[in-house]
Amino acid sequence: MADNTTVFDLIRHGEPEGGPMYRGSKDDPLSEAGWQQMRDAITEGDVWDAIVTSPMLRCVHFAQELSDRYGIPLHKDKRLREINFGEWEGRTASEVMASDGERLSQFWANPAANTPPGGETARAFNHRVVESWQHWQQELEGQNVLIVCHGGVIRMLIADVMNIPLEHAFSSLATPYACRSRVQVDTSAHGRFQSLVAHGDFKALAP
């Protein structure tokens, strides 16, 4: 096994049109504010060899802009779509809390055992996201990669990196709009090791 390092930068999409809500598979594009959030999150020091994106409009439009501007190969992966929230989609957190508060609280307390009505199970969601994650680690090994995706997807990826149980994966990490994370994957004769290097506002972390 050859020694190499793969660096993944994860970025959540900015604010979509319609504002904050349980959006899931609802395919809204970025708002003007969302575009600005995404552009502001990119730094002068960012250099990527490849971009992987969710095909949903709030992700793929920005990924395509970066790909076109810098001539970076772009890969679309439907496994990186957000979790489907079923009957909660298109509704704000306060609206869902008012009508279905007990089930919403149970979901956040233990998503592995509590699925939104008519929605995707957390285990199925986690399985497809981790499957994608393992694929791109192998496919783009040794490169610097940007993944443009969703808050729930980032939570699943970080949970895999840090061995966080699925029961706690949704509640253990804040992922605001245009939030960034960096994961380093080192491969050697000793195996493959994943490390969370940074999470949050990268510009604020710069010296």
Automatic annotation (TrEMBL):
The residue range of the signal peptide is none
User: Per its UniProt record, what CDD domains does this chain match?
Assistant: HP_PGM_like
Which domain of life does this protein belong to?
Answer: Bacteria
By its UniProt entry, which Pfam families does this protein fall under? His_Phos_1 (PF00300)
The identity of this protein, by name, is Alpha-ribazole phosphatase family protein
**Source organism (scientific name):** Marinobacter salexigens
Organism lineage string: Bacteria, Pseudomonadati, Pseudomonadota, Gammaproteobacteria, Pseudomonadales
